[in-house]
Amino acid sequence: MAHYAFLDENNLVTEVIVGIDETELIEGLDTETWYGNFRGKTCKRTSYNTVGNVHKENGTPFRKNYAGIGYSYSETLDAFIPPQPYPSWILDEEECKWNSPVQQPVFDPENPIFYIWNEELLNWEEISE
Question: Are 6 and 62 within one domain?
């Protein structure tokens, strides 16, 4: 069993489905091509177990991230990229994850302080109760 993402004309993910195993052929076509032809959209396989270019079960990561609706697909990186959370955040092309321009403070369980990103100040702010 494999997962497949359908893309619109801007390479944005519009739907993700569970389909047949990617090693099988359908009517002589690979699964991405067959599903794409069937739906009239571009189709790309995605790995449920891949996040940030790491495979959760120590396997080989595939297309950097599991696709989600609203993610974009980069042909150059052959990767699914989540939506950019803030205009200032920078894409790490190795992991295809967005990073803030200022590192988030480290969470200390002994002194639990929570933070939220302030785009106007371009910094992390402590959340007060």
Answer: yes
Q: How many CB atoms lie within 10 A of CB 69?
A: 12
Query: Which residues, other chains included, contact 87 with Cβ-Cβ below 8 Å and sequence gap of 6+?
Result: 119
Mind listing the pLDDT tens digit for each residue in 14-65?
999 999 888 878 888 999 999 999 999 999 999 999 999 999 999 999 999 9
CB-based contact 64:95 (threshold 8 Å): yes
Name the residue range of residue 101's domain: 84-129
Instruction: Give this prediction's pTM.
Output: 0.88
Query: Is the predicted pLDDT of residue 129 greater than 70, yes or no?
Result: no
Q: Which two tokens stand for residue 27?
A: 């009517």
Distance CA 55, CA 47 (A): 9
Tokens at 17, concatenated: 């489905």
Residues 7 and 69 both lie in one domain: yes
Residue with tokens 């994850």: 97
